[in-house]
Design a protein that fits this description.
With 185 residues, this protein is of the alpha+beta class. Helices cover 21% and strands 34% of the residues. The protein has four helices and nine strands. The longest helix has 15 residues.
Length: 185
C-alpha cells in the first residue's frame, strides 16, 4: 500500500533537517521505478529512496545499499547529467498531498525534482528553472517542454487520510519513521 499524505508529511519533517543543503553525490536506479539519491551532508551521507511503484509509492531514508546495474537506465543517466553534484536547496510537500518537490541548484541552473506519489499515476519529473518539464520517469515525450501543472486538490478525504505507517520503534535512534517504513516494505 502506498504512503498516505500524512505519512509523507511526517517523513519530510524527519528527513529535511539532515538532507537540506546537502550535495547529491550519486544517483542509482537499480529497478525501473525506484531511485536512490546519495546526499552528502557535513560528515555523513544519506540514501534517499523514492519509489514510484503504484502499490508501494514512498520516500524515506534507506539504510540498506542497493545493487547498481552495470548500465544505468536512461532516466538515471539523465538525472546524473542534470542534478548530480547539485545542492539540495528545498524540500516541500505540495498542498499536504502526495507530491513532493526537491529544489536543486546545479551547474545548469535550478532544477526541481517532482515526485508524484499518487497512484496509479506515480511519476518523477525534472523541471527547469522556469518550471517546464525536461523529462519524466514514465517516458512521456509529449509532456517535455510543457509547464508543470500539479493535479487539482482532491479534497478533504485525500488530505486527511489515516496514517498507515507501522508503529515507530521505542528506541532513541535517528530517522525512526524511515526505519519503520523500510522495515514495512
Amino acid at each position: 500500500m502506498a504512503m498516505s499524505a500524512i505519512d509523507i508529511e511526517r517523513v519530510i519533517g524527519e528527513i529535511t533537517p539532515a538532507l537540506l543543503h546537502g550535495r547529491i553525490q550519486k544517483i542509482h536506479q537499480h529497478v525501473d521505478r525506484m531511485l536512490i539519491l546519495a546526499i552528502r551532508s557535513p560528515g555523513e551521507t544519506h540514501r534517499l529512496l523514492v519509489s514510484c511503484e503504484p502499490e508501494t509509492a514512498r520516500l524515506h531514508v534507506s539504510f540498506h545499499p542497493a545493487p547498481n546495474p552495470a548500465r544505468p537506465p536512461s532516466f538515471c543517466q539523465f538525472l546524473r547529467a542534470q542534478i548530480q553534484g547539485g545542492r539540495l536547496e528545498d524540500i516541500r510537500q505540495l498542498d499536504h498531498g502526495r507530491i513532493v518537490t526537491f529544489l536543486v541548484s546545479t551547474r545548469h541552473g535550478s532544477r526541481t525534482l517532482v515526485c508524484a506519489l499518487t497512484p496509479p499515476g506515480t511519476n518523477i519529473l525534472v523541471l527547469d528553472e522556469r518550471g517546464h518539464i525536461l523529462r519524466d520517469l514514465n517516458g512521456q515525450r509529449h509532456i517535455a517542454g510543457q509547464p508543470y501543472e500539479p493535479p487539482p486538490e482532491r479534497g478533504d478525504a485525500w488530505t486527511q487520510e489515516r496514517c498507515r505507517a507501522v508503529a515507530l520503534p521505542a528506541v532513541d535512534e535517528r530517522f525512526p519513521l524511515s526505519r519503520a517504513i523500510e522495515a514495512h516494505y
